[in-house]
Amino acid sequence: MDKEFAALYHKYKQGIFSYVYYLSGDRATAEEICQDVFLKVYLNIARFEGKSSFKTWIYKIARNTYLDFIKSSKGKEHGRWQELSENLVDKRQGPEELAISHERQGLIAKTLSKMDDRYRTFVILRDIQQLSYREICDITGHDMSRVKVGIYRARREFRKIYEELEGK
């Protein structure tokens, strides 16, 4: 079992960490939540029924673990979006491109931080994690039409906030 779990951990750890990191905007928070996710997976792997893919099952656990974290830390600042924006920048760029990219990535991180959690989740799952609509349905527990509408509204909210921030 431990060998199989280690293989699952190595296969999914980067994607789950990235997903939680984009949700929280904070490396330490993402690491903590990621550890909780894999602990839950380890303890509950026998309960996986195969009704969805393992990938969607683990992302659903990650989403629920993040939501539990948010509920338990109400009123606390749980994200450091500046840290996220710094880690999105490609360090191989020249100074001018780096400055422009850094500004754009900072704007993206600020935009994500200002979005409603449910919409931020849709943007992260679809546009950053590049999951399919079906996988997003399985993770969120919503039907296809609600996911499509949610993604549409999330992108619209993202665009609106981004343009407002860009104009400042």
How would you briefly describe this protein structure?
By secondary structure, the protein is mostly helical.
Topology, element by element:
Blueprint: H1 2-24, H2 27-44, H3 54-72, H4 81-87, H5 95-114, H6 117-128, H7 133-140, H8 144-167
Notes on the protein architecture:
- With 168 residues, this protein is mostly helical.
- It is built from 8 helices and no strands.
- It has helices at 2-24, 27-44, 54-72, 81-87, 95-114, 117-128, 133-140, 144-167.
- Helix 1 packs across helix 3.
The beta-strand count equals 0
Low-confidence stretches: 78-83
* Tally of individual helices: 8
Rg: 17 Å
Shape estimate: globular
Average pLDDT? 83
Question: What profile does the largest beta sheet have?
Answer: none
Helical content (DSSP H or I, runs of 4+)? over 70%
How much of the sequence lies in strands comes to under 5%
Class computed from helices, strands and strand pairing: mainly alpha
- Succession of helices and strands: HHHHHHHH
User: Termini separation (Å)?
Assistant: 54 Å
